[in-house]
Design goal:
The complex is a heterodimer. Chain A has a single domain, classed as Chemotaxis protein chec (3-Layer(aba) Sandwich). Chain A is globular. By secondary structure, chain A is of the alpha+beta class. In chain A, about 45% of the residues are buried. In chain A, strands 1, 2, 3, 4, 5, 6 and 7 form a 7-stranded antiparallel sheet that branches. The two termini of chain A are about 10 Å apart. In chain A, a hairpin with a 4-residue loop joins strand 2 and strand 3. By secondary structure, chain B is α/β, with parallel strands linked by helices. In chain B, about 35% of the residues lie in helices and about 20% in strands. Chain B is built from 5 helices and 5 strands, in the order E-H-E-H-E-H-E-H-E-H. In chain B, strands 2-1-3-4-5 form a 5-stranded parallel sheet, sandwiched between helices. Chain B is globular and about 35 Å long.
Chain lengths: ~140, ~140
């Protein structure tokens, strides 16, 4: 699992730095997250990944990715960016984990005010800070 | 020389980013067409001349590999250069994509220069941006 944790961290950093121009640092968990994108994957291992954000971080992602002013950011922008972030982090993780294996990913699902995760299986989680607030990533791997 | 390009991705944010990159790439663009899935892309290609396609894999209704298969079976579409731009970059997915005729591959998250270079390659430009001095080969990955 230590290998998985390292690969996941690298995958997260790569996506956020390249696509959202956000530099994450390890931090404490947010008391509550405002939105979440969840994606499942199947293959040699089954699992799921959840990316959870406070609202200011999600809006910063949109601003940076699309070059918009804060006032121009809409809820559909936020939902789309957060879903795409989950898609990219999960895909990036699976390729770095083992590109010789074939995984299929679900379409990411977006939700607002997500409850606390109820993970099952083996769990790897990270909490990060950035200039706008907090985000977290939860990876669940089924046996 | 200007081209009609089709960007196929279910993320409107990703389509916007690619449009910006294409706009800055130096490639002469006549029309930048968009589709949110493979089914819609087929409709767009039925109604418009398309010189090249930038194609995601993980999409609803008809995914990128299904669209590639449909294009490979159609005499009018099978020679349109397709660049895969996806997070689902396992060796088997890429092998399938190249067998179905994809000319290049860009892994998300990408750098703008990677998109520009690949696009110039499939459209027949050399690395300086001069047209027609080399065959339409982006120098992609061998499988």
């Amino acid at each position: 699992m230590e290998n998985v944790k390292e690969i996941l961290a690298e995958s997260i950093f790569e996506v956020f730095e390249r696509m959202f121009f956000i530099f994450l640092e390890p931090g404490a968990a947010a008391p509550v997250h405002d939105c979440e994108a969840a994606i499942r994957f199947d293959g040699p291992r089954r699992g799921a990944m959840r990316l959870r954000f406070t609202r200011p971080v999600a809006r910063l992602m949109v601003r940076n990715m699309l070059g918009l002013d804060n006032g121009a950011v809409t809820e559909p922008h936020v939902a789309d960016c957060v879903r795409e972030a989950a898609n990219m982090v999960c895909g990036n993780f699976l390729v770095h984990w083992d590109a010789s294996k074939t995984f299929t990913m679900s379409l990411p699902e977006y939700s607002v005010r997500p409850g606390p995760p109820v993970p099952s299986g083996e769990v790897v989680s990270f909490d990060f800070d950035c200039e706008a607030g907090k985000m977290g990533v939860v990876l669940e791997l089924q046996a | 020389m200007s081209f009609n390009l089709l960007i196929v991705d279910d993320s409107s944010s990703m389509r916007s980013v690619v449009k910006k990159i294409v706009g800055l790439s130096g490639v002469g663009v006549n029309r930048l067409l968009e589709a949110e899935n493979g089914r819609r892309a087929l409709e767009v290609m039925g109604e418009n001349w398309v010189d090249a396609v930038i194609l995601d894999i993980n999409m609803p209704e008809m995914n990128g590999l299904e669209l590639l298969r449909k294009m490979s079976e159609d005499d009018l579409l099978k020679n349109i250069p397709v660049v895969m731009m996806t997070t689902e970059a396992s060796e088997s997915h890429m092998k399938t994509a190249f067998e179905l005729g994809a000319r290049g591959f860009i892994r998300k998250p990408f750098l703008p220069e990677e998109v520009r270079k690949m696009l110039l390659g499939v459209l027949g430009f050399d690395e300086k941006g001069d047209y027609g001095e080399r065959e339409r080969d982006p120098g992609g990955v061998d499988f």
